[in-house]
Design a protein that fits this description.
Blueprint (H helix, E strand, L loop, with lengths): L4 H15 L6 H8 L3 H8 L2 H25 L5 H12 L9 H9 L4 H27 L9 H20 L4 H13 L2
């Protein structure tokens, strides 16, 4: 059976995101992707290799999204709030962030997952730091707060929010965390 690799990885990513790595079976992945189990192994090598590709795809999508979000001119504040909401999933779903989930599930045993997570988190922090600097230069944010520390705190807030979202945190409560963080800038 012929299939599109990008579409298959996207479907696998959604299933891993919903169920986690350990709870997702190769049979479920094959079914979700519309391929045979043999095709899964022939195309991707292993469940873990497919998971790694899904995490890399997620990272690319998130970093591209953030770069596009902050590329335009105009106020930074509403875009920074929106970035926090999107990255954590507030009000959107109860899956949290697949990368936070993966790091929590496999971080102590999987160096490759840790590297991918670290690359994503470093990228998010860098993009948000540049956005905070722009907000400071435009007068939206306090210039006295170091942008690198603020960006690191933003990342930690997003990771925490992601866990709250996954555990069923009320969207309105999570929204106050986003507003409070950005107000503090």
């Amino acid at each position: 059976m012929r299939f599109e690799t990008d579409v298959a990885i996207g479907k696998a990513m959604d299933l891993f995101w919903l169920q986690g790595y350990a709870a997702t079976t190769p049979q479920e992945l094959a079914g979700e992707m519309g391929i045979g189990k043999g095709s899964l192994y022939n195309s991707f090598g292993s469940k873990h290799a497919l998971f790694v590709r899904a995490l890399r795809r997620y990272s690319e999508m998130r970093l591209e999204y953030l770069a596009d979000l902050f590329a335009a001119s105009g106020p930074v504040r509403p875009r920074l709030e929106w970035a926090m909401v999107v990255l954590s999933g507030v009000g959107e779903h109860r899956r949290g962030c697949i990368m936070v989930n993966a790091a929590a599930e496999l971080g102590t045993v999987d160096d490759e997952v840790n590297r991918i997570a670290d690359d994503l988190f470093t990228g998010i922090e860098a993009i948000c730091r540049r956005a905070i600097v722009r907000g400071q230069e435009s007068g939206e944010f306090d210039r006295g707060r170091p942008a690198d520390i603020a960006a690191r705190q933003l990342l930690a807030s997003v990771i925490g929010l992601s866990v709250l979202v996954k555990s069923g945190g009320r969207p309105e409560m999570c929204a106050t965390v986003v507003e409070g963080f950005v107000d503090g800038l």
